[in-house]
């Protein structure tokens, strides 16, 4: 019995890349988040992905001052970068503090 055609080499490469990316997104949860000016803002509590698995946003639970206070904010995925065991936002501490609180679920 034939299994049918398998994926081409280029498709296999794309699928492998997507799997690695998805694993990387999952590993963001729990990471500390720092502002562009070096302030520890809190930890990532949720990773929001689009239908294609790409990073859309992260939710960060703030630490008491000088971070974002004791609340959760949503940060666009384009405004951050992963640096080993932490993420750094492309926003300074004041900009993050001015973000609205994320809606309760």
Provide structural commentary.
The chain has 105 residues and is an alpha+beta fold. Helix content is 23%, strand content 32%. The mean pLDDT is 82. The protein has a domain at 30-97: Roll (SH3 type barrels), CATH 2.30.30.240. It contains two helices and six strands; from the N terminus they run αββββββα. It has a six-stranded mixed sheet with strand order 4-3-2-1-6-5, with no helix packed on it. The longest helix is centred in the first third of the chain and has 19 residues, at 9-27.
Average of per-residue pLDDT values: 82
Q: Ends: how far apart?
A: 49 Å
Count of helical stretches: 2
The percentage helix is 10-25%
Order of helices and strands: HEEEEEEH
Contiguous uncertain segments of 5+ residues:
none
Query: How big is the Rg?
Result: 17 Å
Strand content: 25-35%
Output the CATH homologous superfamily of the domain at 30-97: PRC-barrel domain
Class derived from helix and strand content: alpha+beta
Largest sheet: 6 strands, mixed
CATH class of the domain at 30-97: Mainly Beta
Query: Main sheet: which strands, in order across?
Result: 4-3-2-1-6-5
What form results from the Cα inertia axes?
A: elongated
- Per DSSP E runs of 2 or more residues, the count of β-strands stands at 6
According to CATH, the fold-level topology of the domain at 30-97 is SH3 type barrels
Quickly give the CATH architecture of the domain at 30-97.
Roll
Describe the protein's topology:
Blueprint lengths: L8 H19 L4 E3 L5 E10 L5 E8 L9 E5 L3 E4 L2 E4 L3 H5 L8
Parallel strand pairs: 1-6
Antiparallel strand pairs: 1-2, 2-3, 3-4, 5-6
